[in-house]
Amino acid sequence: MPTPSSGRSESGDAAVAELPPLLGFTVGITAARRRDELANLLERRGARVVQAPALRIVPLADDGQLLAATRACLAGRLDAVIATTAIGFRGWLEAAEGWGLGGGLRDRLAQARLFTRGPKVTGAVRAAGLTECWSPRSESGAELMTHLLATNLTGLRIAVQLHGEPLPDMVEGLRAAGAEVVEIPVYRWEPPEDLRPVRRMVELIVTGGVSAVTFTSAPAVLSLLGTAREAGRLDETLAALRADVLAACVGPVCAAPLVRLGIPVVTPERYRLGALVRTLADELPRRRVRTVEAAGHVLRVQGTAVIVNGEPVMLAPKTAAVLDALAERPGRVLSRAELLRRTGTAGLTDEHAVEMTVARLRTALGPAGRAVETVIKRGYRLAIA
């Protein structure tokens, strides 16, 4: 990737530093829960957001599996309870109240040893008038399991509050240690009723219409990949995620399905939406920005934006795709056919359309447009002299 020229001015650097870090980048959101909050955080940093919830949450009050699990908890003693998420724990109690089982469930929880996975769920437990006995500082299920397995669990009856997905490592680990486990499937996730946004997201990933995709749960990852498979585009989707589209996951559990497929993933140190957005705002410019000096002008190409001598210029997607291809190796001549191949999936259909797109690029760049040179009978290049 080209590196900044040593001739850049301090005023130009300062102007770039003041711009939103995600300006020009389009980011896909697959989350169902808290997607508006995530979108607002990304938009504040300059990103254009495309939402495609890959899952829907089954209403707890209508969830027969949760009702059956709650009755199983009431049918016998509970020695321990593992609470994994605040929204899930609160939802479980609220659903139990609606079924007329709230009092009995609270009594069972009060008699059990309550383990919480992090500060948010600890707060939810305390707000319910209950007290946790231990919580891992790392907020990780692995540390929680290490703590539990250090004691004799034989014959204990333990309820594990799931968080929208199975926890096979935890559940099977407890059973292997001799415990009886009751799984509590709160806010169970199902495929979305309307698959069109997810299918559109697959299309955007494959065609370069997004620079990054965010995931907040492993089931969302699996749902999107399943949609790609059904559309016959799984291989293309995986190839794009391995190369041009950055996958950002809220934590390692969420990232695991992608990691197993050899897809590079960025995750924050703290498993929070705000931390996820900060990580993306740091990593996406570092990985996807090209900065070159051409014909006496400094061009910083990021998504559909180009910062020309410190001033932002927004480009149409096809125009930005042409500039990005030229900026990949300044001075190298790209034929019209090559530019069509590199950017054709963005909507270019013939070589004349390439010529028109180059003309629009020159106009958009203003005085810096002369950096886009025509090489007669060969194609175009980004001038470096």
Automatic annotation (TrEMBL):
<dbReference type="GO" id="GO:0006355">
    <property type="term" value="P:regulation of DNA-templated transcription"/>
</dbReference>
<dbReference type="GO" id="GO:0004852">
    <property type="term" value="F:uroporphyrinogen-III synthase activity"/>
</dbReference>
<dbReference type="InterPro" id="IPR039793">
    <property type="entry name" value="UROS/Hem4"/>
</dbReference>
<dbReference type="InterPro" id="IPR003754">
    <property type="entry name" value="4pyrrol_synth_uPrphyn_synth"/>
</dbReference>
<dbReference type="GO" id="GO:0003677">
    <property type="term" value="F:DNA binding"/>
</dbReference>
<keyword id="KW-0456">Lyase</keyword>
<feature type="domain" description="OmpR/PhoB-type">
    <location>
        <begin position="289"/>
        <end position="384"/>
    </location>
</feature>
<dbReference type="InterPro" id="IPR036388">
    <property type="entry name" value="WH-like_DNA-bd_sf"/>
</dbReference>
<dbReference type="Pfam" id="PF02602">
    <property type="entry name" value="HEM4"/>
</dbReference>
<protein>
    <submittedName>
        <fullName>Uroporphyrinogen-III synthase</fullName>
        <ecNumber>4.2.1.75</ecNumber>
    </submittedName>
</protein>
<dbReference type="InterPro" id="IPR001867">
    <property type="entry name" value="OmpR/PhoB-type_DNA-bd"/>
</dbReference>
<dbReference type="Pfam" id="PF00486">
    <property type="entry name" value="Trans_reg_C"/>
</dbReference>
<dbReference type="InterPro" id="IPR036108">
    <property type="entry name" value="4pyrrol_syn_uPrphyn_synt_sf"/>
</dbReference>
<keyword id="KW-0238">DNA-binding</keyword>
<feature type="DNA-binding region" description="OmpR/PhoB-type">
    <location>
        <begin position="289"/>
        <end position="384"/>
    </location>
</feature>
<dbReference type="InterPro" id="IPR016032">
    <property type="entry name" value="Sig_transdc_resp-reg_C-effctor"/>
</dbReference>
<dbReference type="GO" id="GO:0000160">
    <property type="term" value="P:phosphorelay signal transduction system"/>
</dbReference>
<dbReference type="GO" id="GO:0006780">
    <property type="term" value="P:uroporphyrinogen III biosynthetic process"/>
</dbReference>
